[in-house]
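User: Sequence in, structure out. Go.
Assistant: Echoing your sequence, followed by the structure tokens.
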Amino acid sequence: MKFPQTPPPVEELLSKLTPRLLNILRAKATVAAAPERYLHWNELRFRPPPAGLKHEEWWLAEKLARQTGRRFLNLKDKHAKPFSYVVPEFTAELLHLIDRDGGTLLRLPEPVTDPEERDRYVIRSLMEEAITSSQLEGAAVTREVAKKMLAEGRRPRDRGEQMIVNNFATMRRIIDLKTQPLTPELVLSIHRQISENALDRPDAAGRLRRPDEPIEVADEYGTVFHTPPSADELPERLEMMCEFANATSDQPFIHPVLRAIILHFWLAYDHPFVDGNGRTARALFYWEMLHRGYGLFEFVSISQFLRKAPVPYGEAFLHTETDDNDLTYFIIHQAGIIRRSLEELHDYVAKKSRETRSALKLLHENADLNPRQQVILTHALRHPNHAYTVAEHQTLQGIAYATARADLLGLAQRGLLDQSKRGKAFVFIAPPDLEKRLLKE
């Protein structure tokens, strides 16, 4: 990732271009009518400008057009200059789609409304978010190894695995914390859980960085991309961030998704901890979304998409900082990521529903299975990892012990149930991939 070129200051451009100001004002109307883009100077300067304008004049027209509807926040940079944002039309549309598909307008996929199935989807999402959020911060653990570790409950063997275990536990806790207000103590507690046993300085978990702990965000070549506010400011800034997150009554309305995105940026900008800032920022984003009633965010992972394209994620921060603290860049990027995350969830649920329907159809058309075995497998499709016993099957079906045993052993021999032993008794486990096994029958 390269550091973007800082845009020319508007005041300087005005002083240079006053004789051509009329053309620029005319161009302002043209750029304002093109709502599908929001270019940073670093991108705009490589594109052909509108007829009759130089690049700097085009940039000034863009900047003038962007002042309409701009809102300023209490969030200020380390020089006390406020951050601000606008909501372009295409972003407003994205916010509507997130409202519609994120659980606030009752458009919930059927499987996640079933209490017996929702845990399966929650665990899948929390694992994905824990793994990819940690990988973003340098955890060198493959997805397969990490999922196996979490599924088996194995103790972490190195720092990368510890980061994933911590993040998984934190994300599960965020669901329980969603009704609580955000406080500095809660933020510190979340950071402690995320970073415990995963820091070079163990005592730094759950506390703000100190004045003797200067920090910079830099790449492996030493290029400094961000220097956060001084440690002396952090207690007050953390109080203000929590006040913003809780949306006290004296604040103007901000769309809840925008508030969650800005909270994500705020903690990342302040970088109040020695390490673990990115994971904490994303955890607070989830807290805000769930706190505001976006129920499907128990099942959504944004970090899987950030992990696939980390450069645009970093550039969204840099574009904001280098262009007059214009948070619109970060908002546009994150709204797109959120939308893709929701689409992935809905696509996944639809795919699993299709697989289940296909498996059920094959199941009921399979003449080799008796009606009792069909009942077991119908239940097993909707209840992965459920354990069936001969005694339970005998009682529910009202059949002889030998018949019940033959039913379950027959399913195990065909690979449709996994047979194991608990104590002296056999149990038969519904495999999570039962749909695939049935489709191969």
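User: And one key feature?
Assistant: The longest strand covers residues 71-76.
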